[in-house]
């Protein structure tokens, strides 16, 4: 099995402002993201040879891409829950790597705010069929399944309820600090630990500020064969690893799963590290965008992704390791928490931040001299996950 | 010898004090408290719980099931079939609903007894449950309670022989509800007493005693039906029973529990009975039933299992607003999650074993018990990936412990906040499920749980029964 490393490059990216885009439909979000990417790559829409659309709720087929006016090229809609954006990039990258095309578009979009709901619409159970054909009735919210991680983590590592709440609150504070520097983020407010721990509870131990925003948005990437990349721009970004790991509900059906990690995260990151030749992720990775849908998930991700030893993420949080100024900044753009989470767009939004950071174009959020970034995206939840890890580098 | 072989009782854990109701409306409290079914309970789920206990206490498995209630959830669709399925009764069993009269519980008992005597059935379960509503501020509101009882009838392992039985049918209208009525209506009290209730009860009792050549003093206990405590006390006097013989109707402890009331009184009497004791059981409603029951030596085996006295003392108080919302007497703002789609009837049929008796599978290769989180049929083992090598495995009777949980303020429930979590079964297997009947202050990882058959959140349409976990008290 060959590694994808250095076979495909990203030469242009676009990302809309995320948020409550009452004035924008799916068509506006798609056009805004795609045309920023076209301009960034210095290409015309007619140069695109194939396209992949990722969306969970905002379209069922590739026809959803029709507002872009692409002319009779191969197009596909993909879906993998909250990892849908990353899935679109996989489709485009593999097509280019295979030689099926040279220039491809990956775009993700989600228009959540037309549902009339404050939360994310859709089945109450992950994998539940919306037609009711796999319905046994238990109801619980999306936050609840990530609350399980927190409840168990606090228990396993002997944290009191107060200690646990304060630990995860620091993640929300960090991500809001970063997001406040980002004009495209959904929220721009800073938070204090006190505000986070005293916010109304959504699903204990998760309070309002432990949960990511429900937002509209789109993000796009233009991928080409790596050997062509420098003909488009001097600073293309190379795909170093591209991995996805999907569980078979082992965690929710077997007692040997511990609910203080997510096996799919571990497997996907190991696959990606192996492709990229990374042996010490804590040292070798310059920055990471991770799937902080809820603060408890970012907590265990530090350990799942090999940044912190098991049970010791708290020490790294206290030390500021993952802050903008730390050794390994995480969610420099504000993350799902502050940037917002339009499901199909999020994976590509993470890559957008890494792409800009690697090109030294991240403005006030720019970190020192990054070489390698990790975008981690999770669909599903603990015990039944779809984990994606994409490694991007600025050197070939 | 045919008679009762086992008994089971279910009293929901919630209590509403009559003073709470009286305080709301500025009326006189009738005293005591009533048992209130949880928001996720109904006569079917309560009867299912009583039946499970009855089966557990019995020496032989049941074959058939009769269910009596005046408040069965469906007008058309048999409740007995739902209950029978939930306890894994054989498809060849005979099931029937007895309905529309407070006497239907004892009538079902008579039918079961006749079937056993005739040899057409081996073991017949008789369950009765009710959730009757009185109009807010009315006298029935303080009186009516919710509960279920179950008896097994058979000819082997009899704990109480039913020696004789007598019935009267009368078209006297005392209480009624038409199809359009939610609340029980009543005729004028003096009219009911003088023209219906007292004459009919005197006739059935004296008639049965004459039949058997017995007198009131021959009974250690007498069980008398009544609409309320006043009527109950008056009847005992008219029939010539001493106060010490009369079984407490439990009105002040759990309320008048409809069709279940007489059977619960019988269970209470049986718990205190000695071998050789005779119990006179009477029941009223569109006529009357009466029977003489003789307790056998075998009663001691079941006597301590139902623990009715203990259960009457337990219970958690709820306020009047909670009661109104649980019984859907007022409509509250919906929880945060969007409404779910209608369950598919065909999918529910495919998944009937999972839904009904929480059946999963056990892998023949690796031995792992497993149940699918969304009820899908398991074809490939989640442990060793063997295909189609499973034996059926029931989880409904397995104890479990709470592995992790969330106090979920978005969970659709009429008792917010919801509690859901990951539960691990003794002997293996894991399920994510809702919890019920919990005390949020006592929720902790590792707490012991048992499974209980409940109504799930539903839109309009069919009643979506499934299983929840509840703390073991």
Report what the structure shows.
- The complex is a heterodimer of chains A (about 400) and B (about 475).
- Chain A is an alpha/beta fold and about 400 residues long.
- In chain A, about 35% of the residues lie in helices and about 20% in strands.
- Chain A is built from 12 helices and 11 strands.
- Chain A has a 9-stranded mixed β-sheet. A two-stranded antiparallel sheet of chain A has the order 5-6.
- In chain A, α2 crosses α12 and α4 (about 160-180) packs across α9 (about 295-305).
- The model of chain A is unreliable at about 125 (pLDDT under 50).
- With about 475 residues, chain B is α+β, with helices and mostly antiparallel strands.
- Chain B folds into 2 domains: about 5-325, Thiolase/Chalcone synthase (Peroxisomal Thiolase, Chain A, domain 1); about 345-470, OB fold (Dihydrolipoamide Acetyltransferase, E2P).
- In chain B, the strands form 5 sheets. A 9-stranded mixed β-sheet of chain B has the order 5-4-6-7-1-8-13-12-11, with helices on both faces. In chain B, strands 20-19-18-21-22 form a 5-stranded antiparallel β-sheet.
- The mean pLDDT of chain B is about 95.
Q: How confident overall, as mean pLDDT of chain A?
A: 94
Radius of gyration of chain A: 19 Å
The CATH homologous superfamily of the largest domain in chain B: Thiolase/Chalcone synthase
Structure summary, number of beta strands of chain B: 22
Helix content of chain A: 25-40%
Which pair of protein chains has the largest interface, and what are the residue counts? A-B, 49 and 55 residues
CATH architecture of the largest domain in chain B, by name, is 3-Layer(aba) Sandwich
The helix/strand order of chain A is: EHEEHEHHHEEEEHHHEHHHHEE
Q: What's the story with the biggest beta sheet of chain A?
A: 9 strands, mixed
Unreliable runs of chain B: none
How much of the sequence of chain A is in beta strands? 15-25%
Spatial separation of the terminal alpha carbons of chain B: 37 Å
The fraction of residues in strands of chain B falls at 25-35%
């Amino acid at each position: 099995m060959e590694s994808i490393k250095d076979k495909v490059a990203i030469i242009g990216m676009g990302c809309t402002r995320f948020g409550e885009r009452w004035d924008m439909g799916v068509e506006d979000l798609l056009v805004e993201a795609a045309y920023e990417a076209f301009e960034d790559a210095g290409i015309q829409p007619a140069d695109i040879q194939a396209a992949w659309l990722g969306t969970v709720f905002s379209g069922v087929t590739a026809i959803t891409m029709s507002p872009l006016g692409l002319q009779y090229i191969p197009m596909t809609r993909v879906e993998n829950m909250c990892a849908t954006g990353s899935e679109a990039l996989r489709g485009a990258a593999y097509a280019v790597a295979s030689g099926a095309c040279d220039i491809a578009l990956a775009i993700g979009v989600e228009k959540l705010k037309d549902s009339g709901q404050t939360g994310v619409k859709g089945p109450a159970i992950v994998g539940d069929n919306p037609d009711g054909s796999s319905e046994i009735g238990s109801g619980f919210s999306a936050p609840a399944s990530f609350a399980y991680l927190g409840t168990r983590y606090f228990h396993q590592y002997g944290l009191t309820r107060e200690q646990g709440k304060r630990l995860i609150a620091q993640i929300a504070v960090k991500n809001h600090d970063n997001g406040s520097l980002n004009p495209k983020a959904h929220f721009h407010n800073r938070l204090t630990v006190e505000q986070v721990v005293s916010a109304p509870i959504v699903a204990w131990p998760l309070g309002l500020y432990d949960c990511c925003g429900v937002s509209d948005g789109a993000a796009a990437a233009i991928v080409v064969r790596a050997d062509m990349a420098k003909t488009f721009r001097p600073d293309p970004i190379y795909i170093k690893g591209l991995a996805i790991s999907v569980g078979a509900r082992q965690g929710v059906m077997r007692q040997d799963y511990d609910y203080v990690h997510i096996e799919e995260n571990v497997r996907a990151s190991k696959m990606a590290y192996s492709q990229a030749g990374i042996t010490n992720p804590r040292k070798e990775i310059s920055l990471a965008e991770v799937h902080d849908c809820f603060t408890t998930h970012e907590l265990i991700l530090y350990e799942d992704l090999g940044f912190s030893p098991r049970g010791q993420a708290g020490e790294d949080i206290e030390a500021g390791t993952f802050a903008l100024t730390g050794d390994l900044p995480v969610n420099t753009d504000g993350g799902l928490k502050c940037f917002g989470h339009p499901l199909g767009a999020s994976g590509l939004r993470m890559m957008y931040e890494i792409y800009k950071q690697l090109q030294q174009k991240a403005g006030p959020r720019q970190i020192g001299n990054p070489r390698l970034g990790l975008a981690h995206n999770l669909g599903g939840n603990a015990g039944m996950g779809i984990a994606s890890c994409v490694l991007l580098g600025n050197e070939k | 010898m045919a008679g009762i072989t086992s008994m089971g009782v279910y009293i929901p854990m919630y209590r509403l004090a009559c003073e709470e109701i009286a305080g709301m409306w500025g009326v006189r409290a009738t005293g005591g408290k009533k048992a209130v079914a949880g928001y996720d309970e109904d006569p079917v789920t309560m009867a299912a719980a009583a039946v499970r206990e009855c089966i557990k206490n019995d020496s032989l498995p049941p074959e058939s099931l009769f269910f009596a209630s005046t408040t069965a959830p469906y007008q058309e669709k048999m409740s007995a079939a739902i209950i029978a399925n939930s306890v894994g009764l054989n498809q060849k069993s005979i099931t029937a609903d007895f309905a529309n009269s407070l006497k239907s519980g004892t009538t079902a008992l008579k039918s079961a007894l006749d079937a056993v005597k005739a040899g057409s059935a081996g073991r017949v379960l008789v369950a009765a449950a009710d959730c009757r509503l009185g109009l807010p501020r009315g006298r029935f509101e303080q009186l009516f309670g919710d509960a279920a009882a179950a008896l097994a009838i058979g000819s082997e392992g009899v704990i109480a022989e039913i020696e004789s039985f007598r019935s009267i049918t009368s078209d006297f209208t005392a209480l009624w509800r038409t199809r359009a009525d939610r609340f029980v209506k009543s005729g004028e009290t003096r009219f009911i007493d003088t023209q219906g209730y007292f004459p009919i009860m005197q006739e059935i009792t004296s008639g049965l005693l004459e039949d058997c050549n017995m007198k009131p003093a021959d009974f250690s206990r007498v069980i008398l039906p009544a609409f309320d405590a006043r009527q109950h006390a008056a009847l005992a006097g008219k029939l010539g029973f001493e106060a010490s013989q009369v079984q407490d109707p439990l009105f002040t402890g759990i309320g008048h529990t409809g069709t279940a009331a007489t059977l619960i009184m019988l269970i209470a009497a049986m718990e205190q009975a000695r071998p050789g004791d005779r119990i006179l059981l009477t029941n009223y409603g569109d006529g009357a039933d009466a029977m003489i029951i003789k307790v056998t030596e075998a009663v001691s085996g079941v006597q301590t299992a139902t623990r009715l006295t203990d259960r009457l003392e337990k219970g958690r108080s709820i306020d009047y607003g909670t009661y109104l919302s649980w019984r859907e007497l007022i409509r509250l703002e919906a929880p945060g999650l969007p409404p779910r789609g209608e369950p598919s009837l065909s999918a529910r049929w495919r998944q009937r074993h999972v839904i009904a008796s929480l059946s999963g599978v056990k892998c023949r290769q690796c031995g792992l018990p497993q149940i699918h989180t969304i009820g899908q049929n398991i074809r490939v083992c989640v442990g060793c990936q063997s295909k189609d090598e499973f034996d059926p495995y029931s989880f409904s009777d397995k104890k479990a412990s709470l592995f992790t949980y969330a106090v979920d303020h978005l969970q659709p429930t009429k008792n917010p906040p919801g509690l859901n979590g990951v539960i691990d079964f003794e002997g293996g297997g894991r399920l994510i499920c809702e919890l019920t009947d919990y005390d949020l202050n006592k929720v902790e990882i590792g707490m012991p749980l048992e499974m209980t058959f409940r109504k799930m959140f539903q839109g309009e349409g069919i009643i979506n029964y499934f299983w929840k976990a509840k703390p073991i008290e």
